Automatic annotation (TrEMBL):
Signal peptide: none annotated. It comes from Actinomadura gamaensis. Keywords: Nucleotidyltransferase, Transferase. This is Glucose-1-phosphate cytidylyltransferase. It comes from the Bacteria. GO terms for molecular function: nucleotidyltransferase activity.
Length: 257
């Protein structure tokens, strides 16, 4: 299946305010950007046709792939002054780069790449900044067996906030970590059918418009997952992933197993 990756946002909570700020999916985890890790996840399961929805600072993404260096993440042998790769990452990938606008919402980015889906009935989509080890084939199979127009992976919240139960006099009657609440949040991994475009208005959003509309009619399937899932909305979260990578703790790297 083709994989649509939304990688054109500003990533405001990751920005330092300098002109050289890179798109959030290009923030490094180990020697490679987040975007690469997400793409390797899909490629591991055989999905190697990618459509990148570009927006903010697109040259950071295009330059990375146009000048890709396999030796940064693969073993190699130097013989007679020539590099012999012992393995490679992206030789079988097909990547389509599409400028979907610097300020476009997610739904509009998806609308603008529709022609590049070549009419495929089912395709995958992702925010390109969340890492997981979720079983993608099972996610796809459950969706294929349904009549839903869209599937969204949902996960328990990971924030460290606490929910306070209040009595009528304003006194706290209980405190519960948000992670223990019966709440699910959007995990950022989607399986979609072409009908999704029937619910996407011009300038609309994938979740707030299309998924909300489908949820009201039973057209939205969820894939609850309690396994490994890590967002990178903040610098702290990205640094935690980078540190985990360096110590060899990277459950999302399913291609290493």
């Amino acid at each position: 299946m083709k994989v649509v990756l939304f990688c054109g946002g500003l990533g405001m909570r990751m920005r330092t305010g300098t002109p050289g700020d890179v798109p959030k999916p290009m923030q490094l985890v180990g020697p490679r950007p987040l975007l690469w890790h997400v793409m390797r996840y899909y490629a591991h399961f055989g999905h190697t046709e990618f459509i990148l929805c570009l927006g903010h600072a697109p040259h950071h993404i295009t330059d990375f792939f146009l000048h890709y260096t396999e030796t940064h993440s693969n073993d190699f042998r130097l013989r007679g002054g020539r590099v012999e790769l012992l393995s490679n990452d992206i030789s079988d990938w097909e990547i389509t780069f599409v400028d979907t606008g610097a300020d476009s919402p997610i739904g509009e980015r998806l609308r603008r790449v529709r022609p590049y889906l070549d009419g495929d009935e089912t395709f995958l989509a992702n925010y390109a900044d969340v890492l997981t080890d979720a079983p993608l084939p099972d996610m796809i199979d459950r969706f294929a067996a349904s009549d839903a127009s869209a599937s969204m992976m949902v996960v328990p919240p990971t924030d460290s906030f606490h929910c306070i139960e209040l009595g009528p006099d304003g006194r706290a009657s209980g405190i519960t970590p948000v992670t223990d609440m019966p709440v699910w949040i959007n995990g950022g991994y989607f399986v979609l059918r072409q009908e999704i475009f029937d619910h996407l208005p011009e300038g609309g959003d994938l979740v707030a418009d299309a998924c909300v509309a489908l949820a009201k009619t039973g057209g939205l399937l969820t894939y609850p997952y309690r396994g490994y899932w890590r967002p990178t909305d903040t610098v702290k979260e990205r640094l935690a992933l980078d540190e985990a990578y360096l110590r060899g703790d990277r459950p999302w790297a399913v291609w290493e197993r």
